[in-house]
Amino acid sequence: MNNVDARVERILQAASWAPSVYNTQPWQVDVTGSLLTLRADPSRQLRHSDPQGREMLISCGAFLFNARAAARRESLVAVARVLPDPDDEHLVAEVSLEPGSDPSSDELELSVAITRRSTSREPFADEPLPTDVLAAIQAAAHTEGARLRLIQPSDPVRQEVTGLVRRAEELAAEDPAARAEEEAWTAITADRHDGIPQGLLGPVPDSDDAPVRHFLAGQGSAHFEQRSTMAVLATPGDSPRDWVAAGQALEHALLTGTTYFVRASFATTVLENPTTRHDLRRALSLDSFPQMLMRLGTSAAQEHAPRRSVDDLATAGGPGGDDRSRDTSS
């Protein structure tokens, strides 16, 4: 990008590795000196599955946490004002990059994990994660104001949870609009820089109680583990501010897990349907609001889904800057 500090460009590149629903990457950034203005990009919102923009803001929250972690690697501190303008619902955060101390070893480890983290939709090792690893992952989510409710293989509610996942997927498969959205963002062509390629959708589980999402375009079948750890990320409230916080908590937890070689995959459909989301909350007796359901385990490293370039996701504004508009639609 023209007129952008190299450190800022590296921070934006790292931030772009954040997970997002269907790899939609629904973010846009304006750079003015050391100020980053993060906006949600409604052209990348799942209008049918995510009409309120909950998942869009969770994705943007994950981008924001990556920017914070990557800034520390540059000996900068990312000071964020989240949702600073109540009249601008797409203005997610204003981030000021300020001089800071050298990063600690933990901060460096977390920033390095950004490019190592990847979603795995392959079978995991058939065993729960160690208690100390799970405690570290839970603590990371808690730091960002969220709770990670674990669902272990012995948990009596686990079968009910997987049943709700299957039920939500069955309902979505019967919905032409939901099917069209999934088809638009999966099994993408090689020239796309967003969406999920066919090879990363993973195989179709050979059992309905497998703790993994079924994709319409999934190919082949495989036996999935039964004893991996499942977890629900929940927040005290269910407002846009909570959704951004959930994204930051999610990515902090995922990066912490990555430092222990833990991988994750997600089951979002059960939370897109208001009825199954309510039923999930009831089944787990949550006094908070579920924002993400995932499985955690160990597996071989997976390829990354494609990412947009910094030139595509950011514009340089301000005096003398490049204020060109870009079409971010797919």
Fold and architecture overview:
- With 330 residues, this protein is α+β, with helices and mostly antiparallel strands.
- It has two domains: 6-116 and 306-316, NADH Oxidase; 131-297, NADH Oxidase (3-Layer(aba) Sandwich).
- The protein is built from ten helices and eleven strands.
- It has a five-stranded mixed β-sheet with strand order 3-4-2-1-11. The chain has a four-stranded antiparallel β-sheet with strand order 5-8-10-9, sandwiched between helices. It has a two-stranded parallel ribbon with strand order 6-7.
- Helix 3 (105-116) crosses helix 7.
- It is globular and about 50 Å long.
- The relative contact order is 0.20.
Give unreliable regions as ranges: 319-330
The mean pLDDT is 93
Q: Largest beta sheet: what is the strand line-up?
A: 3-4-2-1-11
> In whole angstroms, how far apart are the ends?
21 Å
The global form is: globular
Which CATH class of the largest domain is shown? Alpha Beta
The biggest sheet, with number of strands, parallel, antiparallel or mixed sense and barrel status, is: 5 strands, mixed
DSSP summary, beta strand count: 11
- How many individual helices? 10
The share of residues in extended strands comes to 15-25%
Helicity level, as a percent range?
Answer: 25-40%
What is the fold-level CATH name, i.e. the topology of the largest domain? NADH Oxidase
Number of domains in the coordinates? Answer: 2
Let me know the CATH homologous superfamily of the largest domain: NADH Oxidase
H and E order: HEEHEEHHEHHEEEHEHHEHE
